[in-house]
Amino acid sequence: MVVSRRFQNLIADSPYSGGKWLRRVNLADQLFGNTPTEDGSESALAQDSASQIMTPSCYPKNWNRRAAIAALKMERIRIPSPIFRFQAAKAPNLSMHCFPLVDHKVVMADHTGRMFQCDASTREVVTMAPNLQKAKSWPISMFIPSADVIGSDICISTNSCNNTYRLDTARNSWQVSNVKLPLYGKVEYVPELKLWFGFTKQQPKCLQVLAAADLSSSAMDSQSQPQLIGDWKEFEPPEGWMLTRGPQLVNLGSGRFCIARFFKTMTMDLDEVIDRFVVLTGVEVIPVGQDGDASTGIKLRMIKHKSRFHVSNATIIRAIF
Which InterPro entries does the entry mention (predicted)? Predict the structure, then answer.
């Protein structure tokens, strides 16, 4: 497989409350290709990973040894220095949110409503006017790159209702459907497979896994509930690793994804956090055989590539896109 080295992803992390750092990283190279270190060896990278985690002598008296040692068996992802550093305005309850646009452009908005647009390719920052009218505690953003690939509708459903709210962006009108989306979180469309990908619904003590579904207009307009076409588990956390929030899905194109999962390890009495980990795994979903497209019953399988981790020393990864 030939992986392009020109495409760069963005990582937003927080060094402190109200701060956001933005970094560029080639996830495809590190999760799909051979990623040698400067001396040309993969083993040196693994050794460097081990040196970044607290050694046993540094842990509290009742540290969770099994969970800590498990992290040493995984290679560390290489994250470059930040290209942008943002800080929220001085006020109580500092917070800053990051929203992706297109062509390596992102929008930064803090709790006061100030907004900035930054271009990671040119390293230019411009203010956006007007500011938000009110502070937003838990905002979400949706970016539709082209209505010619996937249509003009935006679909939103929640865990608390069995309906889907559809915004027709061409007519600027809302509709309510009694069909509920079978996927959780941000959903990515893969034109090569004519399918949408996201995560399975949240369930107590169950890991959300990557899944595919047909969310075309014909499927959403039917009376039957859209069904998952396939679902796959790419990572099994070691004993003692605790989830801190839901996973994130990054579309790398042509059926390839980066799946980011967020964990922490704690002391045996659950009284103190030892480390916070982000595990990034490269996966590829491909059709099995030549039995047609999604509308005629395509069969899929997932190929797992590499898993790498990032341990939070001074910063915590918040978003990857």
Answer: DUF1668_ORYSA (IPR012871)
Q: What is the mean pLDDT of each run of 10 residues along the chain (321 residues)?
A: 55 83 90 56 39 50 66 81 84 77 83 84 86 68 60 76 79 82 87 91 79 82 78 89 91 94 86 87 86 59 93 82 87
Burial-class residue 72 by CB neighbours within 10 Å (0-12, 13-18, 19+).
middle
Asked whether residue 230 falls in the same domain as residue 153, the answer is no
Residue 190 has which token pair?
Answer: 């893969």
Q: Are residues 161 and 214 in the same domain?
A: no
Reported pTM: 0.82
Say if residue 168 is in the same domain as residue 208: no
Give the separation between CA 108 and CA 99, rounded to whole angstroms: 7
Residue numbers of the domain that contains 149: 144-180
Closest CA to 31 of 287, 212, 234, 317: 234
Domain boundary among 180, 208, 233: 180
Residue 300 confidence (pLDDT): 92
C-alpha–C-alpha distance, residues 176 and 78, integer Å: 45
Give CA separation, 313 vs 6, 12, 78, 125, 185, in Å: 28, 15, 14, 28, 28
